[in-house]
Every structure is written in structure tokens, then in C-alpha cells.
Design brief:
There is one protein chain. The protein is 21% helix and 32% strand. By secondary structure, the protein is an alpha+beta fold. It folds into 2 domains: 4-105, Aminopeptidase, CATH 3.40.630.30; 133-305, Aminopeptidase (3-Layer(aba) Sandwich). The strands form 3 sheets. Strands 1, 2, 3, 4, 5, 6, 7 and 16 form an 8-stranded mixed β-sheet that branches. Strands 8, 9, 11, 12, 13, 14, 15 and 18 form an 8-stranded mixed β-sheet that branches. It has a two-stranded parallel sheet with strand order 10-17. The model has no long low-confidence stretch (mean pLDDT 95).
């Protein structure tokens, strides 16, 4: 019987979750945690999945996440998987073509593509880049249990005037003006859902104000592993001119909470500005200095993240929480 491709509805949720468990990753939290599943993918009566079905059984998935609430939004890719037992030529590409024809969007970009997909993305003329991994190590800690052999840089102490606050709700951020020339474009709906309404993770959303004007928003999450704390910046908005302020703030914040280090995975930010502020850039091919990427389960290894995007002449930025890269993989992460 022929395979039919369509956008999923809420009624497909159980079958999609079963496919995730049986074909994608057995026991993955999305295969059984309904609240997280619907939080990630539900939009009204639809689910943000393109599904391929044979005899009413799902044999392929192409997931996506919207960066904003515009009629023609920017979009991130999510799970893209075909049942390997189904001998249907180019089924994955057919789902993607259906997505392109039926889901209006301006720009497509996401981190997390596997190396095995590089030839595919190159063939369809999309950009492929390795993201940069920056970190600031806490120099008041004598023995590290998570990071290995970190570099210590002098944190810039000569900074511009400005004050950093922690947002208690999305209302604290409403005066911020998004730069529409930076891709992908995110909005307050995205920030509120992604960081203030997450059903499992707790995010800290910080904003930097200068003379009553919000210049930066950055989002971070505290992790605990090996009886140690780690801080991760997972999203960033605004100008780079206050990165020295942010680095100095993070240095004091880490010392106050005895955090081993703060890391910041991104693509598109000026490396020199980050290094001048006090961040070190990780050599992802090194086995000497290690800043782990995976924590669920914990893997003490440098693991690069690759991001893909439509080609563009505009400024393109990607961060750890874009797409599905900062997502729970196991329930014990609470």
C-alpha cells in the first residue's frame, strides 16, 4: 500500500510516541511523558510533525519548532526519522518536501544535525557549521569534577555602565526590541513558552539595562552532576557590546554559588569579543581540556554540535536551546 504524508493531528500523538520508542530511542522521555510531548509539539488541534503513514501506521517523522508567532515564522527542525525497515526511496526527503510546500516559513535553522546528515544538507544547498563552545572556569575552585583541565582567563573589570536583573516574568522583558535583521527572529511568545513555561526545566532569564533600556537578555540553566554545579547559557539576545559586563557578572555569580564553570555554546557571535570579555574557547578536538556537552546521561567528553540553516546574507545566530538541543532526555533530570 502507498505511503501517505500529512501534518499530524493531536489524534496521532499516541502513535508518534510509540514510533519514538520503537524506532527512534527506546525509553526516551518524549515517548512516554505526555505533558512534555504536547508542550513541545502541540499547536491547537495540530502537532508540529509531518508524518508518513503506511496502513495507518507511522513509518516516518519530520518535526519542527516555531521561533515566533508570525504568520510566516522562522522555524527550527526537530526529530527527523524514517523506519529503516520501510523500503521507500527518499522517504525522508519526501516528508521534507511536504513540509516546504505546506508549512509557511521564512527561514529554517537548527542545531543538532548528525554528521551522517551532512551530505544530505550539502546536497540540498543548506549551510552546515560547527558551533563554538566557550566557557568561564571558576578560579576559586581547586579541584574540578566536571570540567577537566580548564583554561583561566582574566575577566575584564573595566566595563560599561549597566545593571543585570533576573526576570520574574515575561512582563519584565517587554520593553526589549528584537533586531529583525538577526536570524532566526524570536519573539516574546517564544521566550515565554520556551523558558517561563517549561514543564520540567527551570531557567534563569537575565536582562541587562542601561539608562532604563534593555540591551541584552540571556537565558541560563543550572545543572548538578558529580555533586558539583554547572551553569549553561542557552540563549542570548541583543548587542555584543556588554559581554564584558555579563562575563564579570557570571564570575561573581559562580563564586557565590560555588559553580565550577559557565559554558556558552553558540554560532554567529564574534569570537574575539567573547575572548576579550573573559571567555575561553574550547578546542573541541582536544582530549586534554574537556567541557562536557551531554548530561543526560553524563558524558565526560567534548562533543561538537553542528547547526544547519538556509543560506542568508543576514546575521545568523544559533544557541544551545534552539531547536531541541536543550531538552530533557530522561525524567531523572528534574
Amino acid at each position: 500500500m502507498s505511503i501517505k504524508i500529512s501534518q499530524a493531528t493531536v489524534g496521532d500523538a499516541r502513535d508518534i510516541m510509540r514510533f519514538m520508542n520503537d524506532i527512534w530511542k527506546k525509553g526516551h522521555i518524549l515517548s512516554y511523558h505526555k505533558e512534555l510531548f504536547f508542550y513541545e509539539f502541540q499547536e491547537g488541534k495540530s502537532l508540529n510533525f509531518i508524518v508518513a503513514k503506511r496502513n495507518k501506521y507511522i513509518v516516518g517523522l519530520f518535526g519542527f519548532i516555531k521561533y515566533n508567532s508570525l504568520n510566516i515564522p522562522d522555524i527550527a527542525g526537530s526529530l527527523w526519522k524514517v523506519d529503516p525497515s520501510v523500503k521507500e526511496p527518499l522517504l525522508g526527503m519526501k516528508m521534507r518536501e511536504y513540509f516546504l510546500r505546506n508549512i509557511p516559513h521564512r527561514f529554517f535553522a537548527a542545531p543538532g544535525a548528525g554528521l551522517q546528515t551532512k551530505p544530505i544538507y550539502r546536497a540540498i544547498k543548506m549551510d552546515w557549521n560547527r558551533m563554538n563552545h566557550f566557557y568561564i572556569a571558576n578560579d576559586s575552585i581547586s579541584e574540578f569534577r566536571v570540567i577537566q583541565n580548564p583554561n583561566f582567563k582574566r575577566i575584564a573589570t573595566t566595563i560599561k555602565s549597566g545593571t543585570i536583573y533576573k526576570a520574574s516574568s515575561i512582563e519584565d522583558l517587554k520593553s526589549f526590541i528584537f533586531d529583525e535583521d538577526i536570524l532566526p527572529l524570536k519573539d516574546f511568545m517564544y521566550i515565554e513558552k520556551r523558558y517561563f513555561q517549561h514543564p520540567i526545566y527551570i531557567y534563569d532569564t537575565w536582562y541587562l539595562k542601561v539608562d532604563g533600556v534593555i540591551k541584552n537578555i540571556f537565558v541560563a540553566r543550572l545543572l548538578e552532576v558529580n555533586n558539583r554545579k554547572v551553569y549553561r547559557i542557552v540563549d542570548f539576545f541583543g548587542s555584543l557590546e556588554y559581554l564584558k559586563n555579563i562575563a564579570l557578572f557570571l564570575d561573581g555569580f559562580m563564586k557565590g554559588l560555588n559553580i565550577e564553570y559557565t559554558d556558552f555554546i553558540n554560532y554567529g557571535l564574534d569570537k574575539k569579543i567573547l575572548v576579550d570579555a573573559g571567555f575561553s574557547i574550547l578546542d573541541l578536538d582536544s582530549t586534554e581540556t574537556i567541557v562536557p556537552n551531554f548530561f543526560e546521561p553524563f558524558l565526560k567528553k567534548n562533543v561538537p554540535i553542528y547547526c544547519v540553516s538556509n543560506k542568508t546574507d543576514k546575521e545568523f545566530r544559533q544557541f544551545k536551546a534552539d531547536g531541541d538541543q536543550d531538552r530533557p532526555n530522561q525524567l531523572e533530570s528534574r
